[in-house]
């Protein structure tokens, strides 16, 4: 067997583990899914799983990183569709809220993520996935005078915290108008930042 074939097989095994774990974690939650079930549905051995991941928590971390990356791409895609800097910013923020209503994203990123990894590790992954992008957008808006001059780091954390808290609330909301109401509240909050 050539090295290229072995590399492809390892990649396929890793991909199967990630895909099946993501599906199981999203539908049933981290605590309800065991490693035996993961390897069974992925069609691999426990040895193959341990070749790629130290255990269930490390596998979950990899799944969470993918989910956060997917959300970051949705946010960037919505922002990049706008030409105006303010519209880019608000579209990205709104895209985050909308993405966070996806049940898969809610369960993995918002419910299990902080519980499994702990707040500090979850926050570090969140900052790596989307916090940097938010800080860049805010810096641009301050630079262009669309937001009053101020330190960007605290503003980034305040907005990120508010949007994450809103997303956590939306994950448990039963009111059908919750997303629309939250999006409207976010628009008002962001508009209050705008330099007059």
From TrEMBL:
Q: Which UniProt keywords apply?
A: DNA-binding, Transcription, Transcription regulation
| Spans traversing the lipid bilayer | none
This chain's protein is named Transcriptional regulator, TetR family
Report the leader peptide range. none
Highest taxon of the lineage: Bacteria
Give the matching Pfam families: TetR_C_41, TetR_N
Q: Name one GO molecular function term.
A: transcription cis-regulatory region binding
Which InterPro entries does the record cross-reference, listed alphabetically?
Homeodomain-like_sf, HTH-type_TetR-like_transc_reg, HTH_TetR, Rv0078-like_C
Q: What region holds the HTH tetR-type domain?
A: 11-71
DNA-binding region residue numbers: 34-53
């Amino acid at each position: 067997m050539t090295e290229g074939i072995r590399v492809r097989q390892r990649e396929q095994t890793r991909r199967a583990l990630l895909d099946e774990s993501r599906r199981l974690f999203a539908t049933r939650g981290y605590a309800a899914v065991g490693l035996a079930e993961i390897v069974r549905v992925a069609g691999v051995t426990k040895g193959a799983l341990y070749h790629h991941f130290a255990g269930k928590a490390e596998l979950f971390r990899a799944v969470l990183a993918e989910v956060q990356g997917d959300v970051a791409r949705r946010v960037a895609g919505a922002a990049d569709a706008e030409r105006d800097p303010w519209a880019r910013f608000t579209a990205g923020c709104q895209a985050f809220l909308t993405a966070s209503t996806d049940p898969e994203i809610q369960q993995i990123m918002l419910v299990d993520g902080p519980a499994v990894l702990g707040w500090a590790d979850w926050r570090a992954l969140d900052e790596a996935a989307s916090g940097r992008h938010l800080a860049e957008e805010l810096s641009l808006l301050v630079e262009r005078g669309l937001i009053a001059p101020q330190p960007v780091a605290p503003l980034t954390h305040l907005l990120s915290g508010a949007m994450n808290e809103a997303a956590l609330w939306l994950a448990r909301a039963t009111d059908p108008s919750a997303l629309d109401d939250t999006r409207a509240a976010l628009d008002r909050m962001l508009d209050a930042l705008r330099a007059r």
